[in-house]
C-alpha cells in the first residue's frame, strides 16, 4: 500500500517518544472491550487526527485518555503517567476534552459557560485575560456573552465548547467530532480556528473526526482505527494522498 502502510508497524511497536504516549491501551464498557492494545505517539504542539468508521473506538479512545472510562495500559503526558479513571485529576494535568455533542450547559450564559472552564483557577485577572483571548478566537461569543447557550446556533455552541476548554489553559486538547451536524462553511471556519490555536498557543491537539479529508488538511499525523485497533499510521499528507487508503478506510476517492 505505500509508506503509510509501512508506518503502521512502527506505531504498533510503540517506537519512539512523544509528548502524548499511549502504550497497549485496552478499554471498554463493563465486560465489552472496545480498544484492543492501542499504541501511538503525538509530538508536542502537533495536531493528530484519529480516523475510522463508526464503531471503531475513536470516542472510546478519547474517553480513556481523559479518564472517563476504565483503561488498561500506559498513558503518559510529557513523560509522566496520567491518572486512570480520574477526569478531574487528568484535567488538572492540562488535558481538556470537548465531547461529541459539545456538552455545553444550555441554561447558562456564554460567559458563565466559559467561567466554568476556569473553575479550578483562582487568579481573576488571568481568567479575565483568558476570556478576552477566547473572544479573540471566537468574536461571535463576545457578541453573545449574555445569551443562554441553548439559544446559540450549533456552530456557536461548538465554538463555546472549545472556548470553555481553552479557559483551563490546556496543554492537550481532545476534540470529538467537532464538525458533527454543522454546515460546511461553519466547519471550515471552525477547523481554521483550531489550527490557529495550535499554532499560536502551541497546544497539542488530538481530533476525532468523520470528515477525514478536512481533518487531514490540518493534521500533521494521523492514525486510522478499525475494530478497536490501529490499522494505519503515518503523516497526514501520506494518508491523504494514498488512493487505496482513502477508499478502504476513509470513505472518499482522491
What does this protein look like?
With 254 residues, this protein is of the alpha/beta class. The chain has one domain: 3-Layer(aba) Sandwich (Rossmann fold). It is built from eleven helices and ten strands. It has a six-stranded mixed sheet with strand order 6-7-8-3-9-10, sandwiched between helices. A hairpin with a 2-residue loop joins β4 (71-77) and β5 (80-81). α4 (110-116) packs parallel to α7 (154-166).
In short:
Helices cover 41% and strands 24% of the residues. It contains eleven helices and ten strands. The chain has a six-stranded mixed sheet, with helices on both faces. Strands 2-1-4-5 form a four-stranded antiparallel sheet.
User: How many domains make up the coordinates?
Assistant: 1
Helix content: 40-55%
Class in CATH?
A: Alpha Beta
Rg over alpha carbons: 18 Å
Give structural attributes.
254 residues, alpha/beta, Rossmann fold, 6-stranded mixed sheet, 4-stranded antiparallel sheet, 10 strands, 41% helix, globular, disordered N terminus
Question: Strands, helices and their partners?
Answer:
Elements: H1 3-13, E1 20-29, E2 32-42, E3 47-51, H2 58-65, E4 71-77, E5 80-81, H3 87-92, E6 95-98, H4 110-116, H5 124-137, H6 139-143, H7 154-166, E7 172-176, H8 184-201, E8 204-208, H9 212-218, E9 221-226, E10 229-235, H10 236-241, H11 243-250
